[in-house]
Design brief:
With 251 residues, this protein is an alpha/beta fold. The protein contains 9 helices and 10 strands. The strands form 2 sheets. Strands 6-7-8-3-9-10 form a 6-stranded mixed sheet, sandwiched between helices. The protein binds adenosine-5'-diphosphate and magnesium ion. Belongs to the ABC transporter superfamily.
Length: 251
């Protein structure tokens, strides 16, 4: 992991033979997956195939049962790794936005900067405002989450994440809980982030987004990677019956 004097650095992720079991339920059965620095990889697959668990192993919200996960060149399960330091560099955006309901939009975007990064209030607010402008919510500082649409709340969650200067962003079905008319705004922001060179691992059912934005698509089923390749190839010309069947159901 690079130190914080290199805020522009983008992390890659290298996952090899990743296993995760919950009791006797083996959810990840030896997953290999690579996201190079600056690359956008979309992870797709049926519900229950282990996508969220895989994402959660990358920032150690779940502890892997076996295999290797490297983030920015460091093995995350290495006992010497500072988990807080790792998480500080890895942004995560969930299906449920998880904003603090009792805090304003601006406060939602400054609290972790102040507590975790130890930034002063003024600097934190400056960074937050910059990122709120980036997601098109420049005039929303004083609103509370329940005064916003789902799409706006998700954009705040993205601005909050970006305010921590992440080197890698994980998205877990960021548009699945949104009204159809607000999905496009969130996807447009993710597309802009990708264009800016952010490393992104995105679990999504948005095949058009995957086709246009992802460098590669990885299809998981039953805890293993079944098919992967350039987005256009995997989505337009899937090789495996399982991927063909999945596409028929989501498109
Ligand atoms: P996906 O995101 O692809 O829908 P998940 O990774 O959420 O799949 O879940 C895969 C499997 O792991 C499911 O069978 C789910 O019940 C199980 N699972 C996920 N998290 C936990 C947990 N914390 N404890 C027990 N089982 C879990
Ligand atoms: Mg999931």
């Amino acid at each position: 992991m690079t130190d914080s004097s290199q805020p522009e650095a983008h992390f890659g992720v290298t996952i090899q033979g990743l296993r995760k079991a919950f009791g006797s339920n083996e959810v990840l059965k030896g997953v290999d997956l690579e996201v190079r620095p600056g690359e956008v990889v979309c992870l797709i697959g049926p519900s229950g195939s282990g996508k969220s668990t895989l994402l959660r192993c990358v920032n150690l919200l779940e502890a892997p049962s076996g295999g290797s996960v490297q983030v920015g060149g460091r093995e995350v399960t290495d006992p010497d790794v500072d988990i807080d330091e790792l998480r500080r560099h890895v942004g995560m955006v969930f299906q449920q936005f998880n904003l603090f309901p009792h805090l304003t939009v601006l406060e939602n975007c400054t609290v972790a900067q102040i507590k975790v990064l130890r930034r002063g209030r003024e600097e934190a607010q400056r960074v937050a405002r910059e990122n709120l402008a980036k997601v098109g919510l420049a005039d929303f500082d004083e609103r509370y989450p329940d005064q916003l649409s789902g799409g706006q709340q998700q954009r705040v969650a993205i601005a909050r994440s970006l305010s921590m200067d992440p080197h890698l962003m994980l998205f877990d079905e960021p548009t699945s809980a949104l009204d159809p008319e607000t999905v496009g705004d969130v996807l447009a922001i993710m597309r802009a982030l990708a264009r800016d060179g952010m490393t992104m691992l995105v679990v999504t059912h948005e095949m058009e987004f995957a086709r246009v934005v992802a460098d590669r698509v990885v299809f998981m089923d039953g805890g293993v990677v079944v098919e992967e390749g350039p987005a256009e190839q995997v989505i337009s010309a899937p090789q495996t019956p399982r991927m063909q069947d999945f596409l028929k159901r989501v498109i």
